[in-house]
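ingest -> validate -> predict -> emit
validate: passed (alphabet ok, no gaps, 126 aa)
predict: started
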Amino acid sequence: MGYSQTTVILFLVLAFAMAATPAFSVVGWEERNFPNPRLCLREITKTHGCLAELSRSLVRKNLNFRRECCEVYQGMSNKCHTWFFNQRKYTPAYGNQVKDYCAQKYGITLAPSYRVYHPMKEPSLQ
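emit:
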């Protein structure tokens, strides 16, 4: 094989590898980046009433949490925190309101909430 043929074949192999890498990286994306929802709910419900306080505060549009619940939210793993505050009514904006409330009232710092891109889900029009 000549030098130019080897170069073309090498170029094609590299081009295919670069094109296939993003497609292969999506396989198993959710398993790597999303926690087990049962474990996350177990984290947030380990102190009785905290999930109810989150829902009640959201519906009433008036944040009111006990110190213990802010400590539970602080103790959530980063993956669970991000997963939880990207579920339907629990938006990243609401997660940041909870973060600010806990910091102002009790001095408990929480991780910021971020919007998560789900490659397997259609974006909602809300």
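The chain has seven helices and no strands.
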